[in-house]
User: Which sequence fits this backbone?
């Protein structure tokens, strides 16, 4: 697991939404993980991953995604998940991540939740 930045970066209150698309396999996840790590180094620790346009996610990548969420949480932020289809939600649940994230129907709802707003959990 990557370490937190060695220099102190003041966390920003800005929420960054990363819109994913297509099928997310190992190669695509490496890109996502690198983006998340770069955001933490820049002080952006409030992130929404938008899965609205994702058709498939390799279940083996859910655990490393949980690790990235923990990185953001240790830095004072969080990682929220939006736009999961029932199929993708089933992948998250079967990989043991049903309570590892806050899940939202829409990315804008997830972004609002950082300010104590709306919370819409997707049902099983």
Assistant:
């Amino acid at each position: 697991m990557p370490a937190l930045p060695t220099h102190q970066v003041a966390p920003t209150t800005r929420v960054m939404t990363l819109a994913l698309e297509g099928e997310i396999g190992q190669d695509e996840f490496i890109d996502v993980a690198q983006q998340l790590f770069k955001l933490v180094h820049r002080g952006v620790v409030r992130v929404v991953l938008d899965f609205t346009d994702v058709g498939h996610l390799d279940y083996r990548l859910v655990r490393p995604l949980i690790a990235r969420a923990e990185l953001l949480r240790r830095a004072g932020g969080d990682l929220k998940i939006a736009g999961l289809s029932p199929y993708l939600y089933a992948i998250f649940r079967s990989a043991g991540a049903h309570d590892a994230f806050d899940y939202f129907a829409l990315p804008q709802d997830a972004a609002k939740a950082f300010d104590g707003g709306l919370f819409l959990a997707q049902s099983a």
Q: What stands out?
A: The longest strand covers residues 46-57. The CA atoms of residues 16 and 78 lie 11 Å apart. Helices lie at 26-41, 62-74, 86-94, 107-113. The chain has four helices and four strands.
